[in-house]
Hints:
With 356 residues, the protein is an alpha+beta fold. The chain has a domain at 3-80 and 241-258 and 272-350. It has helices spanning 25-34, 85-99, 118-121, 131-135, 155-161, 165-170, 186-200, 204-213, 241-252, 265-271, 339-350, and strands at 41-48, 51-57, 59-64, 67-73, 80-81, 222-223, 237-239, 256-257, 260-261, 276-277, 283-284, 289-295, 300-309, 313-318, 323-329. A hairpin with a 2-residue loop joins strand 1 and strand 2.
Amino acid sequence: MRADQQTEGEWERAAAAELGFDPALERKLLAGIEAGLIRDVHAVLVSRHGKLVLEHYREAPDESWGMPLGTVAFDALTLHDLRSVTKSVVGLLYGIALDRGLVPPPQAPLLAQFPDYPDLAADPARAGLTIGHALTMTLGLDWDEDRSYADPLNSEIAMENATDRYRFVLEQPVLHAPGTHWVYCGGATALVGAVIERGTGRRIEDFAREALFQPLGISRFEWLSGADGVASPASGLRLSAPDLLHIGRLVLEGGRAGGRQVVSKAWLDASLAPAVSTGDGLDYGHFWFLGAAPVPAFGGERPWMAGFGNGGQRLWLMPEADIACVIFSGNYNAPDAWVSPTRLWREIVLANLVSA
């Protein structure tokens, strides 16, 4: 049975050496954790060529959108906050809706999708906003997610607490011309989520269930909502680690799963092409971070794409090596939360790939 035909939590497994990794791959991961070089890890899964090569779970305290869950014994069925990896999933959902002709294309005017705000649409400084600017986080509007997500002045948290989340985003002061500056913005994803819901006529979680999760055999998920009852496209999705890995595999397979085209390769190609620099050495596509990392087995750097989430949540993909990696962590709201998942990806997974 092919990995992309399997059901929830089920992956065909293979030994590390069979898939070109150092046989000591898992032992090296455990050594890194025990030495304190890799911290706050809840789950690590690595697949190559559609087979699971590494699967590790731990017991640790966790939370769900800031609500303590106590100590959790993580396993293949445990749902976990994706936080902003949710954005990458929403990018796939927009692509599926676009493939079906249910939503306007990226070049369509953004404010035309929100006719309730004629005052904002009449503002010349906002007239050039497009759906594409939301997908690439280049709206040019004032937005501050550099603050801790425990701070109510964090723009995403303020949006979740607002009476009208969409007006809150769209009425922010204009700082730059659309398309010229990248600023991390959960509000941009909220707008795309609204475009999906209005175009499909369904709540985003219901569209996701039919259009993306069912074709991948994903039957268990949660999608957390704000005070207004709207499921958060920016950070609200909870999945198990094996199921997030299936989504990564879908991307590596060019949008195909179970013998069907779930999302078009054309949309994936557009989504994973660099659209703008983030200013810190990475590029950004349509809700995907893009970069490169050294892979000794390939003799140099190779490109990767990833969904990043608060606390150390990661979905790393490297097409040339055909590797997908899921990391769940619990280092929420910490400024160094990126360190451990990056070390794990570069120093454990890629450094121990010994055969191209």
